[in-house]
Amino acid sequence: MIDATSKTNIEQIISEINQKTTAEIAIVTVETLDGVPKEEYAIDIAQKWGIGKKQNDNGILILISKQEREYRIEIGRGLEGLINDAKAGRIGRQIMVPNFQRNQYGKGIYEALVEINGLLENQP
């Protein structure tokens, strides 16, 4: 789903975000959710993988399912003051969805991460 150039760009920005903020970000692409609700699927992965520093709960998971054409941005509680559900929803609707509709998954994820980085950098 993600081309090589986008993968490199995504890995680079995730590394930069982690270094600047200690927030940990995971991108998960799956062919199908196998009937599991996207919210449950995302939370299960985030908990199993331990995304984010445990004491800060500062993980972000972006889940994309190709077959169902679904996505989920799961934000750890430690970051909800900076990226609430409304902001995550806007990032999905305005950035990810238009790119995904053009089969530009890598570009959509990268641009979403640029927006997330901006929100994290402007923290008080």
Plain-language structure description:
The chain is α+β, with helices and mostly antiparallel strands and 124 residues long. The protein contains 4 helices and 3 strands; from the N terminus they run αβαββαα. The chain has helices at residues 4-21, 38-49, 85-101, 105-121; strands spanning 24-30, 59-65, 70-75. A 3-stranded mixed β-sheet has the order 1-2-3, with helices on both faces. Helix 1 runs parallel beside helix 4. The chain is globular. The mean pLDDT is 93.
Low-confidence stretches: none
- Reading the helices and strands in chain order gives HEHEEHH
What is the spatial order of strands in the main beta sheet? 1-2-3
User: Main sheet?
Assistant: 3 strands, mixed
Number of strands: 3
Helix share bin? 40-55%
Structural class, by secondary structure, is alpha+beta
In whole angstroms, the N-to-C terminal distance is: 36 Å
**What's the Cα radius of gyration?**
13 Å
Approximate strand percentage: 15-25%
- Total helical elements: 4
Fold blueprint:
Layout: H1 4-21, E1 24-30, H2 38-49, E2 59-65, E3 70-75, H3 85-101, H4 105-121
Parallel strand pairs: 1-2
Antiparallel strand pairs: 2-3
Please outline what is shown here:
The chain is built from 4 helices and 3 strands, in the order H-E-H-E-E-H-H. By secondary structure, the chain is an alpha+beta fold.
Properties at a glance:
124 residues; alpha+beta; three-stranded mixed beta sheet; 4 helices; 3 strands; 52% helix
